[in-house]
Amino acid sequence: MADVIQLPSVAEQLKLVAVLRWNLLKNSLQTKNNRWDLIGMILAAAGSAVMVIGLCVAFYAGTYFFLTRGRASWMQLLFWAIFVWWQVVPILVAGFGANFEFRNFLRFPLSLRAFYILGFGYGFADFAAVSSLCWIAAMLVATAVGRVELLPVMALASLLFILVNVTVERLIGSWLERIFANRRAREVLVGLFVLSMVSMNFLNPALQRWGGRERQPQILHLILYFSWLPGSLTGEAVNAASNGDIHALTITFAGLLAWLGATSSLLWLRYKAQYLGEELSESGAPAAVKRGNRRQATNTALPGLLSPPVAGVMRKEFHYLTRNGFSFISLLLPPVMVVFFSMQFAGSSSMIKEHGLPPQTFFPAAMAYLILILLSPAYNSFAFEGRGIQSYFMAPVRMRDILVGKNLFLVCVVGME
């Protein structure tokens, strides 16, 4: 096809894609639901603009204060805030922002370069990117008002900082898309995130026991290990320019250029793999099936006290629990929380002991908390069946046996916990 039809230039391809997207937007507004969605997005953007403008004032005041009071080294705090916001928010609001539709674009004869530019350009369409650009613009205005001689260095450092942030955000988003294409990987990552949030409850007891004042200087030394990241490099560039240190200024700009080159190369490799037809799917690859006698694997070792329908339902519930990562992780949360509450009674400076709560009353409270969490499936026994509940009405089993099997399995789970 490439030998018969000559592709237009990259600029022409980008123009055609922009016209196509605009026409799709206009045509989608012919339905009432899409028009209401557009109105909702406009109202949400208006509400978000208030927050962005308010923080623009804060970034302007912070930049002006740091530069005029001789504290240019504190500029790293502002750039670090923008860096964390730019990278974390797109992950938390994934699915609500502008997504790069790779499969739709690959239907058209785009070149690899145009494909990369489109993917990179979509990084400026996120809410985090737009708000960060507004805050950086406010910092540039404050630099022009407070110390205009630093404006060229501030503008160049901000430009490199913007390019690095967009590239890193697109690279992280591309890899997360690859990881989240697998259901098991999604459940594991979400489970680790939930457990990490729950584990933050142990920070206060740990700091009270092992975080004395003599250890604080050792913790402060860890900040030096983040000096090679873009937020620190950009702030250090402004600080070096403020102090007239050309050597440090050269090193910081070289570090930002190294970040931009490394992340751009990795992003190019990811987009090249997708451009060449990488397919992210959970279905297995097709394989040849050998003909022969097919035997269905069954387990006839049933408990003697249970009827076959009850034992089959219990086995099904066990498989549902082990295959559903969220339900399996929910079994780990109650013991973790019980350990957390038990730690509150340890030590002589326990806050719970100071309020007059004896340890003897904690055990029934912990058991009540444990049972309330574990018995939540009993309120909706057929929550995981979904449309499959109709199979119960077609199978030659009584509904009584199904409910008995579900409740017996739940009793076993509570007993193990």
Q: State the distance separating the first and last CA atoms.
A: 63 Å
Helical content stands at 55-70%
Q: What order do the SSEs take from the amino end to the carboxyl end, as H and E?
A: HHHHHHHHHHHHHHHHHHH
Largest sheet: none
Treating each run of at least 4 consecutive H or I residues as one helix, how many helices? 19
Portion in beta strands: under 5%
pLDDT < 50 stretches = none
* Average pLDDT figure: 76
Class from helix and strand fractions:
mainly alpha
Backbone shape: extended
- Report the strand count: 0
Gyration radius, to the nearest Å? 29 Å
Overview of this protein structure:
With 417 residues, the protein is an all-alpha fold. The protein is extended. 68% of the residues lie in helices and 0% in strands. The protein contains 19 helices and no strands. The N and C termini lie far apart (63 Å). It has helices spanning 10-28, 32-68, 75-92, 102-105, 112-121, 127-146, 151-179, 183-199, 203-210, 216-220, 230-243, 246-275, 308-323, 325-330, 333-343, 351-354, 362-374, 390-394, 399-416.
Give the tags.
19 helices, mainly alpha, 0% strand, 417 residues
